[in-house]
User: What shape does this take?
Amino acid sequence: MKQHIILLALAFLGLTACKKNFLDVTATDRVSNIALISDSALFQDYVINRYLGVKLQDKEAEGTLPGFGRGFEYAMWSSLTDESIYNNDDNTWLIQRGQLAPENTGIAGTLWGRSYRGIRECNYGLHYVDSLQCSNELKTRLKAELHFIRGFRYLDLIRNYGGVVIVNDTVYQMEDDYSKAEVYQKSSLADCIKYAVAEMDAAAAGLPVDNNGNWALGRATKGAALALKARLLLYAASPLYNVGTWADAAAAAKAVIDLKKYSLESNYGSLFLNSNSNEIIFERLYAINARHVCLEISNGPNGYNGWAGNTPLQNLVDAYQMDNGKDITDATSGFDAKNPYLHRDPRFYATILYNGAIYRGDTVQIYTPGGKDSKDGPSNWNTTKTGYYLKKFMDDKNPIDNPWNVAGLQPWIYCRYAEILLDYAEAQNMAAGPDATVYDAIWQIRKRAGMPALPAGLSQSQMIDAIRRERQVELAFEEHRFYDVRRWKIADVTENAPAYGVDVTKSGNTFTYTRKVALGGRLFAAKNYFLPIPRTEIQASNSQLQQTTGY
Assistant: This one.
């Protein structure tokens, strides 16, 4: 959202009233209830700031407060998956190695507390919005916006923890009785999905279709609410959840398509630098003095004075087909192990830096001996452990050295039209088989990428595999893979596979590429399909809050 709006920095219970006594004073570090509800502009600022959450952990929210999910941080959510590893650990390797525990949640420990704090703040707004002196149109929009934000917070909870506590409209106060067991009673997964979908329905009914001068870019729209509803219903129908129908999920995605508002950006790579792209349905915006992590230095090659950061895995690299549409494992594909990066899916080149890639007017040299972006290069503690560096999201106009006052402005895309097409294709294929509409949805995405259409006559099972691969490469590093492999219930395969990388050696003009394990000890257990609730939350409930199964 536009960052020029004042951040109110309201404490979790900072909006409560006190009994009058001789110690009563007018607080100067917060906004009072009366002031907030008597000024519609101030109240609107309060609502807008609910898109932001509280910082609860070191090494997050470097330039501004966090939003939903994780987004642009030093260690991205991709580094908890088979997409990448975080080169300097920062509490990610323990999750990759199956050591996640209620006392040891790594970078995944903030979602529970941040989400419920955000829900409480939305409940507060919904409690007072009818008292505002403003037009009914604005009041309706603000209500819808609060329902959207609250629904997104529940989506964050559901996709990470499964069935959770539904607070409804309660605005908890300090004086409330927290010893009651019902305060901590989890609802079923089906009821949680139903509640979050209803939130998105309420949001869609009151939000505008477009962002304009009266509704700034970055605020939720009708399309954003319908898109997150489609995601919720896709999850609900998936094997891990199994509380919805594929037909409902397909219909929800189709509703977004039928708005006829969104389209695919012509260039895949530039999409992630363009906040005004018509492909973007909902995004987080940034500004100077309210930036995110400077991506180019934090993920760049060491030979360019970068820190490596989120380094792509060979597991992901192998998912990119040849540009003729064939898998690299197909003997007829033309794949050459001696020149493994030739003639690959164009999205590969827009996503990953590899040995020999052209970058910033130079060539990436990951080889040894002597490669500037290898352990033989400068600052070799920042050398990639996987043999790759991240290119997606990078803005070559930003400096790598001393970027602090100019970089960190790329939009974080929460939802885009390509996801909706993939959601529809998956759900429709599961509901009715690989009909013409399924092929068309996938073709739109592959055509934009410069890839051939899928072969005709695929079976439903073959189409499932094709769609899953398409999601893997199209949505790489956008916080989908972590949840996709779980909802499909294939994480016991994908997340138990070694974290592969590649060693590149040079002899004369010949390069040799040798597969290696980049991070040892990778492990995934059945309990890891959902996250553990932090132990402190269980203790605060006097152990009345039920821990995630298996922990």
